[in-house]
Amino acid sequence: MTKVLNNTVLFLLIGVSLLFGGFAAVAEVPPLSLGSHLAAQGNYDAAITEYKRFLFFHPDDPRVGEVYYNIGVAYKAQSLWTEAVNALRIATHLAIDSETKSAYQLELAVTLIATKNYDLAQLELIKITLRNPPIQLYRRALFLQAVAYIYQFRWEEARSVLRNYTTDKNLDALFEAAVNMPQKSTKVAKTLSTILPGAGHVYTGNWRDGLNALFLNGALGFLIIDAVLDEHYTDAALWGGLIFLRYYRGNTFRAEAAVKEFNLHQSQQAAEALLQRLQEIVNTP
């Protein structure tokens, strides 16, 4: 009887050990696989929760860097840029090898470009190129460097980087057009508007605002002259000192702003053309 009891207890202990051992083994996998499944379904908040659950229970697991990378990608998909950048920086720091580190840094650079932190993105990309990664990652880094420079309207730097990426003649022609793109002068616009209100706006091709400025300042000038001719000097002083000078000075200020807006629009158009051509090159088999 004692022997049978002992055997029963032994079997129970073995069964319990196997049961809990199975639970422990299964418990390691679901957070990662479930997190990946949820992310694929677009349920990023739930995916991040599962990833963080894994990090809490397995802080020393060699896959921790990969998990932080997945968290960063999930944050990025939700346009939570600060959280995405922080997670991707940790992932880069914890990367298990040089190639993985470069891949994580590329994703970090893309995120930084999306947040318009172009200089920080360039820093990450330079680190990648100095590491001599595999050719595919190296070319991707060059591409992103050029994109960051184009967004900053730094045409020559972008062209220089892309010489190691492509020899496309159409792209080079677009760079040539961007480099030699005519720009309006704020000094000229202010001078023209000082001489003739509205002329600075016309200089940038903005005829509507130019004519409005000319009409408004002309009407105020007429009222001042009319008041002087009628010997209403107090009214003339009020019209001139309180109203005319305000609109006259504002006319020159707005002309300067119009030039900056014009130049920005021109640069943006050049950048869009360059980026579109780059995308066509990437998509070409």
Walk me through what this model shows.
The chain has helices at 2-28, 30-40, 44-57, 64-77, 81-93, 98-114, 118-130, 135-151, 155-162, 169-179, 186-195, 199-203, 207-229, 233-283. The protein has 2 domains: 16-172, Serine Threonine Protein Phosphatase 5, Tetratricopeptide repeat, CATH 1.25.40.10; 186-278. With 285 residues, it is mainly α.
Relevant terms:
2 domains, 285 residues, single chain, Serine Threonine Protein Phosphatase 5, Tetratricopeptide repeat, mainly alpha
How would you summarize what this structure contains?
The chain is an all-alpha fold and 285 residues long. The protein has two domains: 16-172, Serine Threonine Protein Phosphatase 5, Tetratricopeptide repeat (Alpha Horseshoe), CATH 1.25.40.10; 186-278. The chain has helices at 2-28, 30-40, 44-57, 64-77, 81-93, 98-114, 118-130, 135-151, 155-162, 169-179, 186-195, 199-203, 207-229, 233-283.
